[in-house]
Amino acid sequence: MSKIEVDKVDPQSGTALEIGTSGDTVTVPSGVGLTLTDSTLLLPTTITSTTEVKTNKISPATGTAFALGDSGDTFTVPSGATLTNSGTATGFGKVIQYLYGETTTQVDTDHSSPPVVLITLAGMTLSSSSNKVFVIGNCGQARMASSGTGADASITIQKDGSNTNAKSVNFTYPTQAADMRGHGTCSALLDGWSGSEVITLIGSGFGSGVSYQYQDVPSTLFVMEIEV
Description:
228 residues, Jelly Rolls, 6-stranded antiparallel β-sheet, 4-stranded antiparallel β-sheet
């Protein structure tokens, strides 16, 4: 094997220099550094590494977007690793915003003037009308004072004054004894909306002698905008 020792190689003519011929392998041996100073390294469209690529930053070659992998690929974040997002993540189904309300104020009612409002959450304006909204309401304890089947408690979630599909069953029906206690939960996944909507948890039972939030046991209402 011959060796050429030289401090610089320039093209014989023009500005292009070629090393080797198709099929050749050019090796930079261990311990040797290949330094590019104020230069551009032009790589092929696809680079394959079967071991590991280490870098501190990946940026798009042109424009402001790049794809990570191809359809059907799986990327694994190993145990002990942390994926930190300091920007805006889209397409992950994350919770965009939420509203939460809670009350322990006992409400005694005969249901003669519906709705019996338990919790009202100020209007929620969605970031996108194509998103979904998950609602869940809970009444920790209601009391039916009288015996028989003439009264019972239930709860419903309303959107802008209209009932949603979030409605509980009657807490104790058929009520047989006086001073019956019960609790209930309701939930639904709602389509998104434009503008601002008020979300309300109401007592939607029937009859007289019914107390919601009895003995100050709380009722709660939770509303979440979910990106889809």
